[in-house]
Design brief:
- The protein has 312 residues and is an alpha/beta fold.
- It has 15 helices and ten strands.
- It is globular.
């Protein structure tokens, strides 16, 4: 809902600041029925996929189609929607993806060798499922005629950019003032809080080590390699992690690898063995043992519980 609202409201405000209807929009769903957001609020729509097909060549043909995705996007399959998106793109219509909308564009075969952005929580599963897409943890990405953003308020930043392409900075600044935001963030701004703020850690050496760990999950570094990279001894690293993180560096490294595995289990259909390999485990049995110790359930149970939740 946040991504949906912050994509529309800058356009409404831009119309008001410009003094005329520079932007118009309509809402569509596959079957023309209202769509319920994850917060339970239903959004009425203006048209269905069938209606949109009839408008593909008329005066109501869109200049841009934006897909808004939410939770459990990896389970969505609609070949008719995928085909329609491809047809619109081939006719020169720009495509956009809000939050997890990039998943739909990729499933339609439109993001191969394209730069794109998706919400950080969905990035691991997306990268594994669509290896040909060049996905980044940026606020938004623009590659030729395809616009994708990470969701949340990043949708607003992407729309500010679009408005800036059509108007001067004065209009963009006035829209920012209307929406009570103090600046337009750049595409490469962080999606997540910096590690220092996210973890409450101030020691720069510990932060550097954690960044190394997060960048090497599928092929974990040894503590010797980490020590050489940061110019500390193994004993110094052990002491620092005990002080700052309350656990050993090996334990912390294991936990972030298992967190990555949990995202893959929930957001992808990768076999458990492949999830284990992608997160740096040499065997499925060792992976399952470590996973059960941390989450009190097996990887198979995690996936089964997720499927039951989606079905419900």
């Amino acid at each position: 809902m946040v991504a949906f609202a912050t994509a529309l409201e800058p356009l409404r405000a831009a119309n008001r600041m410009a003094g005329y209807e520079a932007y118009g929009w309509r809402l569509a769903s596959a079957d023309g029925r209202p769509v319920q957001a994850s917060n339970g609020v239903e959004i009425a729509v203006d048209s269905s996929l069938a209606d949109e097909r009839q408008k593909m060549t008329g005066r109501d043909r869109p200049t841009m189609v934006v897909v808004c995705g939410g939770l459990s996007i990896e389970t969505y399959v609609n070949k008719s929607v995928f085909a329609w998106l491809r047809e619109e793109y081939n006719r020169g219509v720009a495509l956009g993806g809000l939050c997890t909308g990039a998943h739909i564009l990729a499933a339609a075969g439109l993001l191969a060798n394209k730069r794109c952005a998706i919400h950080w929580e969905n990035l691991p599963g997306f990268a594994e499922k669509f290896p040909k897409a060049n996905v980044f943890a940026d606020l938004f990405e623009i590659d030729a005629n395809i616009y994708t953003c990470a969701g949340g308020t990043a949708a607003m930043d992407m729309m500010f950019h679009l408005i800036g392409e059509d108007f001067d900075d004065n209009i963009v600044n006035r829209v920012c003032e209307q929406l009570l935001t103090d600046r337009v963030r750049s595409p490469s701004d962080r999606q997540r809080l910096p590690l220092r703020a996210r973890l409450g850690v101030q020691n720069s050496k510990v932060l550097t080590i954690i960044e190394l760990m997060e960048a090497n999950l599928s092929e974990p570094l040894s503590l010797v390699e980490v020590a050489e990279a940061v110019g500390l001894s193994r004993r110094q690293i052990e002491r620092l992690f005990r002080q700052e993180m309350g656990r050993s560096p090996a334990r912390y490294y294991l936990e972030i690898r298992l967190d990555r595995a949990r995202h893959l289990l929930i957001q992808s259909t990768m076999p458990v063995v492949e999830v284990a390999v992608a997160c740096g485990f040499v065997s499925a049995s060792h992976f399952s043992k470590c996973y059960r110790e941390l989450y009190a359930r097996s990887p198979q149970q995690e996936r089964a519980d997720r499927k039951q939740l989606i079905a419900a």
